[in-house]
Design brief:
By secondary structure, the chain is mainly beta. It contains 1 helix and 9 strands.
Length: 202
């Protein structure tokens, strides 16, 4: 009789469960908007605002108006843009007060009366200023919003002044250093919130 001796094996120690790496939610946000005040003046416009940091955002607006205002001698033709860096005291791009530093540049051809028409001589007006604003959310989900903003600052305007008649002659050329209101906004926007996760390395 052959005795079979069972080999004893040491129990395999179970590996301790590894704790998942801690995750933190990182929120990205941007909004698409339009300025109702500019639309009221028949100026097409669109803007995008991007959240940069917990209290900072970047607002970009563009405007284009290539047409007359119903009649030949009434027009606000513009093509320009305005970037603005904003600091928020409330919920960024959603609710609260903000202060913005903006710059702007625009080509223009403007006539608001029968007397004269003002046009840039291939030199866009440009300037910079400070703006204050307040934003409010709209709707239950608060993705829609409205903001009110007013800005003041400086603009350098070089223009040609023409007689208001059709194809009227050039009357004068002038350069103006302007100080005063530089922007007015009643902006309606839709905000997109995108949540991502960042893993902490151990």
């Amino acid at each position: 009789i052959v005795a079979v001796q069972e080999e004893k094996t040491a129990p395999i120690a179970e590996a301790a469960p590894q704790e998942p790496a801690s995750t933190a939610k990182k929120q990205h946000a941007f909004s698409v908007k339009a300025n109702a005040a500019a639309v009221a003046a028949l100026i097409a416009n669109i803007g995008v605002e991007i959240k940069l940091a917990p209290r900072w955002s970047l607002d970009l607006m563009g405007a284009y108006s290539p047409y007359n205002m119903f009649v030949q001698n009434r027009k606000i033709r513009v093509f320009g843009g305005r970037p603005e860096v904003r600091f928020w005291w409330g919920d960024v791009m959603k609710r609260g007060h903000f202060l913005g530093l903006h710059g702007f540049a625009s080509a223009f051809n403007v006539q608001l009366s029968d007397k004269a028409r003002y046009q840039d001589p291939n030199h866009v007006l440009w300037g910079a200023g400070l703006a204050y604003g307040y934003a409010l959310p709209l709707g239950k989900k608060e993705n829609w919003g409205v903001e009110f903003t007013l800005g003041v600052g400086y603009a350098r305007i070089k223009y040609d002044k023409y007689d208001g008649a059709k194809n009227g002659p050039l009357l004068e050329r002038k350069v103006v250093n302007y100080f005063g209101p530089t922007r007015l906004g009643i902006n309606f926007s839709y905000r997109f919130d995108i949540e991502g996760k960042t893993k902490d390395k151990k």
